[in-house]
Amino acid sequence: MPQNRTIRFGVIGCADIARKVSRAISLAPNALIAAVGSRSLDKAKLFAEANGFPDGAKLYGSYEAVLDDPDIDAVYVPLPTSLHVRWAVAAAQKKKHVLLEKPVALNALEFDEIIEACESNGVQFMDGTMWVHHPRTTVVKDFLSDEHRFGELKSIHTCFTIGADADFLKNNIRVKPDLDALGSLGDAGWYCVRAILLAANYELPKTVLASREPVLNEAGVIMAAGASLYWEDGKVATFYCSFLSNLTMDITAIGTKGTLHVHDFIIPYQEKEASFYTSTESKFDELVTKWDPQPSKHTVNTDLPQDALMVTEFSRLVGEIKFNNSKPEKKWPTVSRKTQMILDAVKASIDRCFEPVQIQE
C-alpha cells in the first residue's frame, strides 16, 4: 500500500500486550505506529524507545492527546477491561477506528455502548483475538464445514490454561476486581468461547451451565472455571480456563464423520508455522490393535505472524472506509458481542449457584 494510504495508529496505554501489537503494527504492510499515549510522558517515551517506534512517532502524556491528534486514523486500546467503555467510546466519538483488547467489556450491555458509538460515528471495530486471523484457522474452518470429511458438529471441547507465577497471581491486572473483574473467564475463557462459536458457525447456544466450584482468589475474581453449552439441535460444548494449570490451549471438535484436534490454537508452537490433526471415518482394524485410517497432520505456513495479519485486516477495513467511502464491516462487532454474551451467561450461572442460564439474542 502506498505511504499515503497507510493507516496511522495511536496506542493508548503501555500494557505488556501493547508490546506485541506494536510489533505487529510495524510488521503490517498497511499500518504505521504514529503515536503512543500514557498517563505519564516519561512512560510513553520509555515504551516507544523499548519497542522501536519510528522516529516520527508522537509521544503523549495522556490518552486524550492521542484521540485529539488529527493525524491518527485508528487506536489500539490495551487498557484494563473496566476502562474499555470510557476510552473506546471516546475514541469512536473522535472518529478513530477501534482495535480493542479482549474481553471487550465487563458485560454485553457495556459493549453495546461501544458498538453504538462506533456505528453512529462510522468507525470500524475489531477485538484483539489474533488466532482467528491465522491462515490455519481458515483451513480448520473449511474442514469443520466439510459435510463429507467432518459431517455435522456434535460436540466441541476447548481449554486454555496458564501456569501463572506468584507475582501474576498477586499483582496482575487480571486478578484485580476493579480492573479485570472477569479474571481467567474473561482473559482465557474468551478464546475458548470464540473457538466454540467458530465451530458452531457462530450460532449461539440456547443454555449455558457453569461447572461447580470455580476457583476464586481472595478478592472474588475467577482464577479457574468451566462451563457446558447446549444447543437446541443437540450440540454440546464444554470449556475450561485457568490461571492455575500448565500452559495448554486445545480444541477437540467431533462431527458425525470426522474429528479435529488443535493443540496450540491461540499461540502456535512456532510463529510462522501451525499444524492441526484430522481424522475421517476412523475405525479399528480387525483385531482392534490400531486405528484405520490414522489421523493426518496438516501444516499451514504464513509469512506474517497472526498478530500482524490481524492488524493488516483491520487496516484494510479502515482503508476501505477512509479512501473508498465503504461502510464498517459488521462481522467483527457481532462476533465480539456473541462471545461476550456467553461469558455473561457463564458468570450469571456462577452467581446463581450454578443454575442453567438461557441466552436470548
TrEMBL record:
Which Pfam families does its entry note? GFO_IDH_MocA, GFO_IDH_MocA_C3
Q: Which Gene3D superfamilies match?
A: Dihydrodipicolinate Reductase, domain 2, NAD(P)-binding Rossmann-like Domain
Traced from the root, the source organism's taxonomic lineage reads: Eukaryota, Viridiplantae, Streptophyta, Embryophyta, Tracheophyta
What's a Gene Ontology MF term here? nucleotide binding
Q: Which family does it belong to?
A: Belongs to the Gfo/Idh/MocA family.
Gfo/Idh/MocA-like oxidoreductase N-terminal domain location is: 7-126
Official protein name in the record: Gfo/Idh/MocA-like oxidoreductase N-terminal domain-containing protein
Q: Where is the GFO/IDH/MocA-like oxidoreductase domain?
A: 146-260
